[in-house]
Amino acid sequence: MTKPGISAINLYVPAYRVSLERWCEWNEQPWPKVRAVSGRSFRLPGPNENVYTMAATAVMRLLEAEDIDPESVGMLAFGTESSTDNAAGAVILRGMVDRRLEALGRTRLSRRCEVPEMKHACLGGMYALKAALRYVATDGRGRRAIVVCGDVAEYERGSTGEPTQGAGAVAMLVEPEARMLEVDLSRAGSASDYRGPDFRKPMGRHFVEGYAAGTRRMHDFPVFSGKYSTYAYLDETVAAVDDMVAQHGVEAIELFERVRSLFFHRPYRMMPLSAMSFVMVRAMAQRPPSRGELAAICDAAGTSMSEVVAEAELRPDLFDRLQGGDMEHPYPATAATASAYRKSDAFRAFADDKMGLGSETAMDLGNLYTAALPAWLAAGLEEAVESDEDVTGREVLAVGYGSGDAAEAWPMKVVPGWQASARRIGARRALEGAIELGRAEYELLHDEGRLEHTARSSQCFAIERVGERHDPVFQDLGVEYYAYVG
């Protein structure tokens, strides 16, 4: 019986770095609060970079680090919400990778290689990984898959989302016999529901006068409502976790206590902690033996345990509520209790133990949308191997989320020999060589997509030129051509 999963991970982030401490000085924001909520820094793609160049660079780094035979790859799947071509997807990455392989004297990727692109906000990467896992377990016939998650998370300057920007890509090797993380989809949890204007990128926004008026370049700023999006995140994540717990046949608290680590979608530092404290309070409410502990937490929070227990049975339709003008939290007692619990010594100890691996590195990764969860997972495995912690045989849980709205919750198991691949991840190494941006440089790059002095990164792909022909014989208007910068 095959045990499909992840055998290797590699990642790429652009060199241009924005320190959130300096950003706070520029914008008169409280650094301690921003650090606690968002992190330490984020990256911006350079003028000659986009999601395709970053993703192809991550794939190329994976191929080289793991010495992968290109002919053995039967699927190259791309999860993103930042693609700029409405026809082609992962085949664009293939084009860059093939030419680089030839330049190195190697063969191209197999001609018999599937090249799908998956889109569902930040969950597109997990959906791509799920497709690859199913491929290697069924019709792959012993072949491998590469999954790459990549995005550019950008927000209008002055918006609440501005400190939660970021850019980068994570590539993963998927094999029928995992050499790092076995993924058990038979016990995974799924959930989805339509949430209307949760977090969207409708094309029509570009034609509305006044939309992002201060930005003089092509941009992909979302239309979002922070509080409503947070409610959706919590509600859908809980539903997916509930489904996963049901597949395990154990109570949620028991499952959380036995696993080594929990990794959530991480758009910013605080969101996974908020989600986990919410999930824990709700799990206590659903488990009578835990209600003594819950009663003490409710007393400290000044909330009603009976209301928390009642809310654990609710299944609200958030979109219907919104259409009826109800913008209040659908689980007010649970949310207030979780907020108080999150500040307790008990939860801090739980979070340090179960959510601590890789969290320091993730503080400098910023928001990577589809790549946020796999990047944190990569950083966690790297930290474990570097600290000589043997997590062989231990289970970890990965909980992904995509606005709009859907979630996945998967159990994974660390397999024997995982250390060899984990040592080659290079999560912290990917952050080296940063080019620190001052305020004027950041605003110029953010608003106009250019810099006065561009320092091109090396050993990555870049946009070489953009096609301009539009005549009856030949057209390449807007088509990007790429080159490898050695």
What's the CATH H-level homologous superfamily? Answer: Thiolase/Chalcone synthase
How far apart, in Å, are the first and last alpha carbons? Answer: 42 Å
CATH architecture: 3-Layer(aba) Sandwich
The helical percent reads 25-40%
The poorly predicted ranges are none
- By secondary-structure content and strand pairing, the structural class works out as alpha+beta
How many independent structural domains? 1
Q: Using DSSP, what is the number of strands?
A: 17
Furnish the topology, listing elements before pairings.
Layout: E1 5-12, E2 16-19, H1 20-27, H2 31-37, E3 41-44, H3 51-66, E4 73-79, H4 90-103, E5 117-118, H5 124-137, E6 144-153, E7 166-175, E8 181-183, E9 189-192, E10 199-200, E11 223-224, H6 226-248, H7 252-258, E12 261-264, H8 270-286, H9 291-301, H10 305-311, H11 318-323, H12 332-342, H13 345-354, H14 359-362, H15 372-386, E13 395-402, E14 406-414, H16 418-422, H17 427-430, E15 435-436, H18 439-448, E16 460-466, E17 480-485
Parallel strand pairs: 2-15, 4-5, 4-6, 12-13
Antiparallel strand pairs: 1-7, 1-8, 2-3, 6-7, 8-14, 9-14, 10-11, 13-14, 16-17
Helix pairs in contact: 3-4, 6-8, 8-10, 8-12, 9-12, 10-12
